[in-house]
Structure prediction request, 333 residues.
Amino acid sequence: MFRSWRKTTAAVAAFVACVWSFQAHAGDAVAADPEVVEKNRKANEACFACHSEFGFKNPPRTDMDMKKLAETLYDPKVFAGSNHGTMDCRQCHGQGYNDYPHSETGKSETSPCSECHATKVARLEPQYDASVHARLESVKAKFTCATCHDPHIDLGATLLKDPLKIAVQDNKACLECHDSDEVFAKYAADDDKTPGIKKKRPNIDTIHEWLPNTKRHWQTVRCVECHTPEVKANRPLSHEILDKEKAEKNCLSCHSANSSLKTRLYRHLVKDEQDRLGFTNSIILSSSYVIGATRHPLLDKIVIGLVALTLGGVLLHGAIRIVFAIRRKGKKQ
Ligand code: HEC
Ligand code: HEC
Ligand code: HEC
Ligand code: HEC
Ligand code: HEC
Ligand code: HEC
Ligand code: HEC
Prediction:
């Protein structure tokens, strides 16, 4: 009797998991049941009673590690507006956090992304495995999907749409490490020459000093635009962060009418426009996101300068070769 009850429960659980994962794959096509969402929001209030600014200022008990709590605060409104905002915290965290002090096993019960996004993870994982962070010995073990993706805050690019918002969200993860000595040191390997001392963080603006107004670029375009290979138009994002030698340095890959950004950062705008008008171009060429070589006076000069330099270089190179060829001929004779 007991065993068959267990079997039934297992079957029901499997069915629920199946339906659940189907929903997760279907993307935002499947609107969550408003009643369930309401129930989940109510249930989450129990967690926000501590894990929010309000909870921190009005702690329900006095025997807590307040320093640790301060590092684990979330804004209920931000969470509600995120990818996972319709969910119950316990769908990812299990039942180990229902009471305080939390159970010792709580952390090991956190669901991995693959539990609900199996198809996506199967597609992304090989790219991720080939990326610099997954290959560098020092970084590998500490790097997970959640290192870049905050499941409590992030909102999918498809929903954000605005390139400026997408850029801020996606660059935040990279900059959190690459623009902070303290965080970088937690991940970096020991220095080659002085073991025991962490490798120094290369300054992000110095590395890219060939790029004019780096700060403006960090606000408007993503690190991954230059640091990942471009893949198919319908699958434009790769998780493979390339070796630095392979990063994009060509200004015209973005600053041209045929900008690669059309299939990357601006793809959601382009798609929107295509759906609306049946063709594209006007947004990229007329909205404030425009970065084509014709809009920005300084940029115009730089692009013209670059073209002139390239042309000049080619001409000079040609001239020198002709001179040398003539001289060699002269010597032979
Ligand atoms: C009474 C206050 C309180 C409540 C309610 C509470 N937490 Fe916590 N939680 C804390 C504190 C304090 C910490 C800091 C680490 C510690 O002391 O265990 C923490 C830590 C955590 C951590 C990090 C664990 C780790 O080992 O790093 C998670 C995850 C967590 N809580 C999830 C939840 C979830 C989910 C809920 C709701 C079901 C919840 N908490 C409810 C106070 C609370
Ligand atoms: C989609 C899954 C998911 C949902 C939903 C979710 N979390 Fe988390 N949470 C995670 C993951 C994954 C981590 C571990 C992050 C890491 O390793 O850096 C985490 C970490 C935490 C931590 C520890 C943070 C730290 O810096 O140590 C707290 C506290 C927490 N979650 C609370 C909550 C609360 C409260 C809710 C509901 C309002 C919630 N989580 C909903 C996946 C989720
Ligand atoms: C317990 C199940 C669960 C877990 C675990 C989970 N998610 Fe989700 N995720 C969902 C659901 C449900 C949605 C919303 C789908 C919808 O809108 O219908 C979602 C949506 C998303 C989206 C937005 C849609 C998209 O694909 O662009 C992203 C991105 C995402 N999750 C990333 C993650 C990452 C990264 C992790 C691991 C840190 C994770 N999720 C863990 C259930 C989960
Ligand atoms: C080095 C940082 C980084 C790591 C690590 C990372 N991601 Fe991403 N991920 C990104 C960025 C940047 C985007 C770009 C958002 C876009 O344009 O859609 C993204 C997009 C996504 C998306 C939405 C777009 C899509 O292709 O469906 C999902 C889902 C996702 N990541 C899941 C994962 C999972 C699962 C892992 C772990 C295997 C992971 N990510 C690890 C940075 C990272
Ligand atoms: C959690 C910290 C962290 C995050 C987040 C992170 N990185 Fe890194 N990254 C590192 C560390 C540490 C190294 C290794 C430095 C070393 O040992 O040389 C590194 C190395 C690199 C390198 C140099 C690879 C080479 O050829 O030497 C590039 C490029 C890079 N990261 C780009 C990115 C981009 C783009 C993102 C965001 C999508 C990102 N990183 C997110 C910590 C991080
Ligand atoms: C316009 C394209 C472009 C953008 C945008 C860009 N990078 Fe780079 N990055 C490069 C190129 C090219 C190199 C190689 C530089 C060289 O060899 O002179 C590089 C080098 C690096 C390195 C290697 C540093 C070293 O010497 O070890 C890191 C780390 C890095 N970038 C991180 C980032 C981060 C983080 C962002 C986003 C804030 C970013 N990059 C944005 C093109 C770009
Ligand atoms: C990955 C795409 C990308 C690459 C590569 C790139 N840029 Fe940009 N650049 C942008 C975007 C997006 C903006 C923001 C446009 C705006 O301000 O409206 C921008 C802005 C600029 C600006 C205006 C800055 C300001 O002060 O307002 C200049 C100048 C510029 N880029 C020059 C360059 C040069 C020179 C290179 C090559 C060394 C380059 N860019 C490479 C995307 C790129």
About this structure: Residues 1-29 have pLDDT under 50 and may be disordered.
